[in-house]
Design brief:
Elements (H helix, E strand, L loop, with lengths): L32 H16 L12 H16 L9 H30 L6 H26 L4 H6 L7 E2 L6 H4 L6 H14 L6 E2 L2 H28 L4
Antiparallel strand pairs: 1-2
Helix pairs in contact: 1-2, 1-3, 1-4, 2-3, 3-4, 3-8, 4-7, 4-8, 7-8
Length: 238
């Protein structure tokens, strides 16, 4: 299978699938920003709903900054992500980094509370731990989405010859003709990695992807194991 590299201007039209080149290797329309915005918004809302003992104080400072950054991104670049804009790219990474750092601190506080034997109710533990785990899944999904083949704009322009994450659809010539990964696909990869603690159908090829997979699996394993171990001793009837 030949690989086509597109280096033309961002305003050039999307390639015709009739030329036989898979969608992920040619210029396409690009993804809608709304799906990414909804994913980040969901993560921020989960952080705002966490119990006080699992967040940094004052608790609403970071979430408000995250929401403000997200709003700026949506307003400044509401269209499809089919052109490379350095400022938007940096802003998007900064917002995601803030969400990730905030959730990382929640993980640390959760682990500290469990391992030091602090008083914590069963409902608070399960709800708080579940929200942290789910936020972590969203965060890693967006990291994969942001860096796979150079990011969403690079994928839309068809600039990357080789994938960092090999989805099964890419290996089937018929499916690959009109298929390329979007946010929900990266969310699925992140979810399965968080539950199975290992890659499932999508294979990490790049070293950075393998490192992120290992880090995500480790965080998920520690979080689930500690919550389960503590919950056994505090749930009614245990």
């Amino acid at each position: 299978m030949s690989i086509r590299r597109s280096n033309g201007p961002a305003s050039a039209p999307a390639s015709d699938p009739a030329d036989g080149v898979p969608a992920w290797q040619r210029r396409t329309e690009g993804e809608q920003r709304w799906w990414v915005a909804l994913a980040i918004l969901a993560a921020v809302i989960l952080q705002m709903l966490l119990p006080d003992r699992f967040v940094l104080h004052p608790r609403y400072v970071l979430p408000v900054i995250e929401l403000a950054g997200l709003l700026v991104l949506v307003i400044s670049h509401p269209e499809r992500m089919s052109r490379r804009t350095r400022g938007v790219r940096i802003g998007s990474l900064l917002v995601l980094a803030l969400v990730a750092a905030n959730n990382a601190m929640s993980v640390v506080l959760l682990v500290h509370r469990i391992t030091t034997g602090g008083q914590i109710g069963a409902l608070e533990l399960l709800a708080g731990g579940g929200a942290i785990w789910l936020t972590n899944t969203i965060v890693f999904a967006l990291w994969y989405w942001e860096y796979d083949r150079g990011g969403p704009a690079s994928r839309a322009l068809g600039l990357a010859d080789t994938p960092d994450l090999l989805f099964p659809q890419m290996t089937d010539p018929k499916l690959a003709l009109n298929w390329e990964p979007i946010v929900i696909d990266y969310l699925f990869v992140s979810y399965t990695n968080s539950t199975a603690f290992s890659p499932t159908d999508t294979v990490p090829l790049s070293r950075w992807a393998k490192v992120l997979f290992m880090l995500q699996s480790a965080i998920s394993l520690v979080t689930v194991a500690l919550i389960a171990a503590r919950a056994v001793n505090i749930l009614p009837g245990s």
